[in-house]
Amino acid sequence: MTMIVLGVAPPPPPLELDGELEYKVEDVIDSRITRRNLEYLVDWKSYSESEWELAENAQNAAELVHEFHARCKISKQASAPSRASRRRGV
């Protein structure tokens, strides 16, 4: 029996990969470095809460991590001042 609390379904059961339990990642939202460890803010598929996960735990979501870094690179380039404006102090 599946219970839904306040309109939020429980997360789907984990998949078993190489003898270990794995959950599906829907998207990588953010990244940070804490205590010299790279972490990703992961949005889980069919689950309402995001969680910070060590980069080593996101190895099975490598494509989503790559897409996240591509999005970050594009947004940083769009917001960065040009070299000429930096030299002029603009």
Describe this structure in words.
This protein is an alpha+beta fold. The chain has a domain at about 20-80: Beta Barrel (OB fold (Dihydrolipoamide Acetyltransferase, E2P)). About 25% of the residues lie in helices and about 30% in strands. It has helices at about 60-80, 85-90, and strands spanning about 15, 20, 25-35, 35-45, 50-55. The strands form two sheets. Strands 3-4-5 form a three-stranded antiparallel sheet, with helices on one face. The protein starts with 14 loop residues before the first strand and ends with a helix.
Q: Determine the mean pLDDT.
A: 76
Extended strand count = 5
Compressed to H and E, one letter per element, the order equals EEEEEHH
Share of β-strand residues: 25-35%
Q: Please give the order of strands in the largest beta sheet.
A: 3-4-5
Give me the Rg, rounded.
18 Å
Helix fraction bin: 25-40%
How far apart lie the N and C ends?
63 Å
Number of helices: 2
Entry keywords:
90 residues, alpha+beta, OB fold (Dihydrolipoamide Acetyltransferase, E2P), 3-stranded antiparallel beta sheet, two-stranded antiparallel sheet, 2 helices, globular
